[in-house]
Amino acid sequence: MDETLLDNIAFNADGLVPVIAQQHDTSEVLMMAWMNRDAVMETLDTGRLCYYSRSRARPWRKGESSGQVQSLIELRLDCDGDTLLALVDQTGVACHTGRRSCFFTALGAAGAREIAPVLVSPDTLYDRSD
Amino acid sequence: MDETLLDNIAFNADGLVPVIAQQHDTSEVLMMAWMNRDAVMETLDTGRLCYYSRSRARPWRKGESSGQVQSLIELRLDCDGDTLLALVDQTGVACHTGRRSCFFTALGAAGAREIAPVLVSPDTLYDRSD
Predict the structure, then answer these.
(1) Which residues pair with B19 in a beta bridge?
(2) Which residues pair with residue B74 across a beta bridge?
(3) How many angstroms separate the CA atoms of B28 and B24, rounded?
């Protein structure tokens, strides 16, 4: 991987760029998270999505605890260079609540309404001894 | 619209939340932009996407210059409450470059590569006297 490729990306003042993860074949938007320069490089090098956890201030290899990994199909950059779109192949569920997508709440005149079922119990997702 | 609905949204330190715009029927991810509280409220009230322009520090009613408006189909919130997904019906093109989506550059071993055509000349988009 030629590291100059990353010079196309306009990281913010914290050195981060938002990344939208979209399932490559169904086009479902799964989640949004952040990457720093090292995480983008690792993702391109390994073909596995690696984000940067702002709360834990460290690399976050998607699925490292839950086993719900994301394989990279294609990484795309927007016209301003400040947002990435990752086409991925998601194993299982993307959301820590056990739903396929993190975007399971609709906001509207009827209030906030859940529109997607829990597919895997969060207890199962995070009760792993390996 | 009950304004308490917006209390579900975790705006960042600048009072903003990132918004992913996705075409409702094709599921194409069109763009990512930001909203403040007033922009979310206006979007829900009017059914037209209103963002907050960070560079111009003012509301940005999508299509106000270009005519390429976005109608809201559904607004969704993610599990952490800090990202919105807007399902929209996009008139024409979402990108100021005249492409349907802003995510027209693929990053990979072959470098940065354009993967989507210009559908409308930017001169046409922004040469409007009305």
Answers:
(1) B33, B84
(2) B87
(3) 8
Query: Which residue type sits at B101?
Result: S
Return the closest-CA partner of residue B92 out of B44, B23, B20: B23
ipTM of the prediction: 0.95
A18 contacts on B by Cβ (under 8 Å):
18, 32
State whether residue A40 is helix, strand or coil: helix
Give residue B126's pLDDT band: very low, low, confident or very high (50, 70, 90): confident
Using a CB-CB distance cutoff of 8 angstroms, which residues of chain B are in contact with residue A27?
26-29
Per-residue pLDDT reduced to its tens digit, B11-50: 999 999 999 999 999 999 999 999 999 999 999 999 999 9
Tokens at A110, concatenated: 């009827």
Q: How many residues does chain A have?
A: 130
CB contact under 8 A, B107 and A76: yes
Number of Cα atoms under 13 Å in the Cβ half of residue A91: 13
pLDDT value at residue A129 = 46
- Residues lower than pLDDT 50 in chain A: 129-130
Chain B nearest CA to A129, separation (Å): 25
